[in-house]
Amino acid sequence: MICKTRHVLARLRFVQIAALCLLVAACMPTRLSAVPSGDEELAISVDGMSDVRFWGDESTPALISEGMGAYNREVALRRAAGERGLLPPSNFLAISGGGEDGAFGAGLLVGWTAAGNRPSFKIVTGISTGA
Question: How is 83-127 classified by DSSP, letter by letter?
Answer without folding.
Answer: --SSPPP--EEEE---THHHHHHHHHHHHHHHHT-PPP-SEEEES
